[in-house]
Amino acid sequence: MLGAPACAMHSKNKTIALFMNHLLEFYGTECPHCVNMHELVERLEKEEGIKVESLEVWHNKENEKRLLELDKDLCGGVPFFFNTKTGKFICGEAGYETLKAWAKGKPFTQEE
Q1: Residue-by-residue pLDDT tens, the chain, 112 positions
Q2: Strand locations in 1-108, DSSP E?
Q3: Is 41 within 8 Å of 53 (Cβ atoms)?
Q4: 45 φ, ψ to 5°?
Q5: Which helix (H) or strand (E) holds 73?
Q6: Nearest-angstrom CA–CA distance, 28 and 56
Q7: Would you state the torsion angle of the CA atoms of residues 96, 97, 103, 106, taken in this order, to the nearest 10 degrees?
Q8: Domain range spanning residue 86?
Q9: Is the distance from CB of 89 to CB of 81 less than 8 angstroms?
Q10: What's the confidence (pLDDT) of residue 110?
Q11: I need a labelling partner for 28 at 20 to 30 A (CA). Which of 16, 53, 58, 93 fits?
Q12: Does 7 map to a domain?
């Protein structure tokens, strides 16, 4: 169902986030780094046909909660990308090839 909200379920004292997609982009509306990365996400979706779920966290408390559940001191800010299938993440800005490798579940090195 398109546009359905993500939810969480509890299992043995663990919260498991359920999202519409396994590729998640957490961003802040006014964040310039997020704007740069979202342009790469749009390119990825167009060129590779890969869908990334975008979740705004600065003005949406539910999305912020989801970010905090997944981040667990990995990044501490946005942009933050998390692949729920592989557990791999990107913290901050990265290049297009890094983003594509992350999305496809391939090995990558995060640029500094």
Answers
A1: 233 333 333 333 344 445 568 999 999 999 999 999 999 999 999 999 999 999 999 999 999 999 999 999 899 999 999 999 999 999 999 999 999 999 999 999 986 4
A2: 7-11, 14-18, 23-27, 53-56, 80-83, 89-91
A3: no
A4: -65, -40
A5: none
A6: 5
A7: -170
A8: 21-104
A9: yes
A10: 83
A11: 16
A12: no
Q: What is the CATH number of the domain that holds 43?
A: 3.40.30.10
Q: Output the six-digit token pair for 44.
A: 């990825």
Would you say 19 and 12 are in contact if contact means Cβ atoms under 8 Å apart?
A: no
The per-residue b/e assignment along 76-95, b for 16 or more CB within 10 angstroms, e otherwise, is eebbbbbbbeeebbbbbbbe
Give the Cα separation of 105 and 88 in Å (integer): 8
Number of residues that this document lists for the chain = 112
Q: How many domains does the chain have?
A: 1
